[in-house]
TrEMBL record:
<dbReference type="InterPro" id="IPR001375">
    <property type="entry name" value="Peptidase_S9_cat"/>
</dbReference>
<comment type="subunit">
    <text>Homotetramer.</text>
</comment>
<dbReference type="InterPro" id="IPR045550">
    <property type="entry name" value="AARE_N"/>
</dbReference>
<dbReference type="Pfam" id="PF19283">
    <property type="entry name" value="APEH_N"/>
</dbReference>
<comment type="similarity">
    <text>Belongs to the peptidase S9C family.</text>
</comment>
<dbReference type="GO" id="GO:0005737">
    <property type="term" value="C:cytoplasm"/>
</dbReference>
<dbReference type="GO" id="GO:0004252">
    <property type="term" value="F:serine-type endopeptidase activity"/>
</dbReference>
<dbReference type="InterPro" id="IPR029058">
    <property type="entry name" value="AB_hydrolase_fold"/>
</dbReference>
<feature type="domain" description="Acylamino-acid-releasing enzyme N-terminal">
    <location>
        <begin position="69"/>
        <end position="446"/>
    </location>
</feature>
<protein>
    <recommendedName>
        <fullName>acylaminoacyl-peptidase</fullName>
        <ecNumber>3.4.19.1</ecNumber>
    </recommendedName>
</protein>
<dbReference type="Pfam" id="PF00326">
    <property type="entry name" value="Peptidase_S9"/>
</dbReference>
<keyword id="KW-0378">Hydrolase</keyword>
<dbReference type="GO" id="GO:0006508">
    <property type="term" value="P:proteolysis"/>
</dbReference>
<dbReference type="GO" id="GO:0008242">
    <property type="term" value="F:omega peptidase activity"/>
</dbReference>
<feature type="domain" description="Peptidase S9 prolyl oligopeptidase catalytic">
    <location>
        <begin position="513"/>
        <end position="719"/>
    </location>
</feature>
<keyword id="KW-0963">Cytoplasm</keyword>
Length: 726
């Protein structure tokens, strides 16, 4: 009989997983906050989106909800808030049509069927563009260029099959990222623009580059100058995977459009040559260009994020700027190696991109507003655009909830939209604004609605951050039931969940799957070990070359610390991890075979030297102390060192039963990694099961797949978590 037996669905998981999650926001109609949410529908096995608009005033906002069409792939409000650009895909089951639309209020001002001029729109964080020109008569967007753009091309079959690298995990179909310029002439009669009054061209470089450069993240500065990020092929013909990676060869470019007269009447979809200049140095990975305008709408400064190329896949971010008058670059916020007692700021650890408009004006100052990791929390920072001075606007004070914050949008003036949550409190949406006394105030716009049963159950949970004193700056976020932890007898089983990365971080945000597991009666420990972001660059660099030892020992010490504090106990430990967290879980049950009763691993790295098929082959080299270059080869000596640092080296010691969750389409920790471990355990007659998710990628976050994964972990621990490993 299988060790994995389904015990049914969970009402807690179902309700929490289906809670609306705020993901983006903007201001429409001048000053009306609008928030977009994603919603998982477990019954239909789909993810939907909905939009809430909050009209009225600070004292009494009125909420209206609309359910967004799945046809809309992206939308953007214009700077004047009077127009909206929509990228739409309409499918009838056999074919897909694509449209670019410009709406002025409820009237469509311009619309063009772009289906035959390019392939899918790019709407990801890495290449997408959606930017109005200052006059609001032109729009930049990014799409996948056609393989053969000329219908009258020869019968040459090779272009269709010629190898072209893609952007990696979640971006297998993205190979030819191209910026398109859509321009229209407004009708004086307020009618929809005719085809003769519209222009669509693809932008290309007039000057060839040494290696191919693919552009995205384009934004207008003036009617004829745009700024964009350029993703560069490596010398060995790769596009290194970009998802969760801040160290890719890419830079900020200034691109000058040709004069309007020279492109007027150009056939739709034609490539036009543009003069371009790379503004950033070759040793820095630069992205997310944002233009600051003065009160006269003159562009004055350009800002972007920057990280070193190579090394750890994520690290402390620098915020850099360029004076558009003098052409001089400046580091506004530099890398912080280690916080000090005088200044505990650990450095910038924001999302991959800044918000589309990150600026806030207060008095004589203009700020960039970001949310950034600060140890195990995410907080809201104001950064002065002149001095780089930083203020923590949501600093946690004694006795306050463990809120982690997300910034979604500013109105480019004095207001901004955020969301916040704790490990036991779902997200709520807030408006930040300055009152007449220049004090920062908060207005709650939206709170999550739940059933009374779930609300009461969550009240029984408590969350805390526990420092691991023996291995600073390691700390762990602990979630536990007040009732279960104070009952006589054995402590609840403790589920240890180290995060992936390794250069990521678990924050005090609300995670439905984690909260649902805690509501099953488990204590949850979420350790941020050496290498986690939010603690200073020193601790990211410290892990390089020490993966499999230092991070493993940090997690073990977090287990010991909770036992010393009476939060958990020996013989009641299990481990659950994905990606690098799965790497750690596999190491933990191999190096410490009697410490954990059971393990669950999602797409784990188990044999580092065999990871060369990953979309990030450089990861194995950088994290394990080797230099990666375009001519790097896996030599026997290198493989031996990587093998010794891998969980597979300890497979003979494994005693805990193992459940593997594998995404068939994972390009990051390729499925062969999990298969390797499964067969190694099977061959040694160990207890092991594996679930194989067709069509799922590294995160296994499809609606059904995520639910089944959660239920499998719960059932695995329910059946095996109480029995010490043999």
């Amino acid at each position: 009989m299988s060790l994995l037996q389904h015990t049914g669905s969970s009402t807690f998981y179902t309700e929490l997983a289906e809670l609306p999650l705020p993901v983006s926001a903007d201001f429409v109609g001048g000053d009306v906050p609008r928030v977009t949410y994603t919603v998982r529908d477990l019954e239909r096995n789909i993810t939907r989106s909905l939009t809430k608009t909050f009209s009225g005033g600070i004292s009494s906002y009125h909420q209206t909800t609309s359910h967004d069409s799945s046809e809309i792939k992206a939308f953007r409000t214009s700077p004047s808030k009077s127009r909206q650009a929509v990228l739409r895909e309409v499918s009838n089951g056999t074919s897909t049509k694509r449209f670019v639309e410009i709406w002025a209020g409820v009237q469509i001002e311009a619309s063009l069927d772009v289906t035959k001029y390019h392939d899918a729109f790019h709407t990801d964080d890495f290449t997408s563009s959606l930017s109005f020109s200052p006059s609001e008569t032109s729009l930049l967007y990014t799409a996948e260029a056609n393989i053969i753009s000329d219908d009258n091309a020869s019968d040459d079959p090779y272009p269709k099959f010629r190898y072209t690298p893609h952007f990696g995990e979640l971006s297998r179909g993205k190979k030819r990222s191209t910026i398109f310029l859509f321009r229209w002439t407004r009708s004086t009669a307020f009618t929809k623009a005719t085809k003769q009054d519209m222009l669509l061209v693809a932008l290309s470089l007039a000057q060839p580059t040494q290696t191919p450069v693919l552009f995205g993240q384009a934004t207008f500065a003036t009617e004829d100058i745009i700024y964009a990020s350029g993703h560069e092929h490596t010398k060995d013909g790769r596009l290194l995977g970009v998802k969760w990676c801040f160290n890719r060869p890419m830079g900020i470019w200034e691109i000058k459009l040709p004069e309007s007269a020279t492109v007027q009447g150009t056939p739709f979809g034609t490539k036009i040559s543009c003069n371009a200049l790379k503004l950033t140095p070759s040793e820095r990975s630069c992205r997310s260009p944002r233009v600051l305008y003065d009160e006269n709408q003159t562009p004055t400064k350009l800002f972007w994020f920057s990280n070193p190329i190579g090394g750890p896949h994520a690290s402390c971010v620098s915020l850099e700027s360029r004076d558009l008058t003098t052409g001089t670059n400046k580091v506004l916020v530099d890398t912080v190696m280690e916080p000090t007692s005088e200044n505990d700021f650990p450095g910038l650890y924001p999302n991959y991109n800044m918000p589309s408009s990150p600026f806030l004006r207060h008095g004589d100052h203009t700020y960039i507003v970001l949310h950034s990791l600060w140890r195990s929390r995410a907080t809201i920072l104001f950064i002065d655009t002149e001095s780089g001075a930083i203020s923590d606007e949501t600093k946690m004070r004694d006795g306050e909830p463990l809120y982690s914050w997300d910034l979604h949008a500013t109105d480019d003036k004095t207001r901004f939209i955020c969301s916040r949550s704790t490990p036991t409190t779902p997200h709520e949406v807030l408006l930040g604004y300055f009152d007449e006394h220049d004090n920062l105030n908060w207005k709650v716009l939206d709170k999550t609605m739940m059933s009374c049963a779930t609300e009461n159950a969550l009240r029984d949970l408590t969350a805390s951050i526990i420092p691991i004193g023996a291995r600073p700056p390691t700390e762990t976020i602990v979630i536990q039931s007040k009732k279960a932890s104070t009952r006589p007898g054995s402590k609840p089983i403790c589920v240890n969940i180290p995060h992936g990365g390794p250069h990521a971080s678990t924050t005090t945000s609300f995670y439905p799957a984690t909260a649902a597991l805690a509501l099953e009666g488990y204590t949850i420990s979420l350790p941020n070990y050496t290498g986690s972001m939010g603690f200073g660059e020193k601790y990211i660099q410290k892990l390089l070359g020490n993966c499999g030892t230092m991070d493993v020992q940090d997690v073990v010490e977090s287990v010991n610390e909770l036992i010393r504090r009476g939060i958990s106990e020996h013989g009641r430990q299990v481990v659950h991890g994905g990606s690098h967290g799965g790497f750690l879980a596999a190491h933990l049950i191999g190096q410490y075979p009697t410490l954990f009763n059971a393990a669950v691993m999602r797409n784990p790295v188990t044999s580092v030297g065999e990871l060369t098929a990953s979309d990030i082959p450089d990861w194995a080299y950088g994290e394990f102390g080797f230099q990666f270059t375009p001519d790097s080869l896996m030599t026997p000596a290198t493989f031996q060192k990587m093998f010794e640092a891998s969980p597979i080296a300890h497979v003979d010691n494994v005693r805990a039963p193992v459940l593997l969750l594998i995404g068939e389409d994972d390009l990051r920790a390729v499925p062969a990694q999990g298969l390797r471990f499964y067969h190694a355990l099977k061959g040694r007659e160990r207890r092991v099961e594996m679930l194989w998710f067709k069509g799922e990628t590294h995160s296994i976050d499809g609606v059904e797949a995520a639910r089944v994964s959660w239920e499998a972990g719960r059932d695995w621990f329910k059946n095996l978590g109480q029995n010490p490993a043999d």
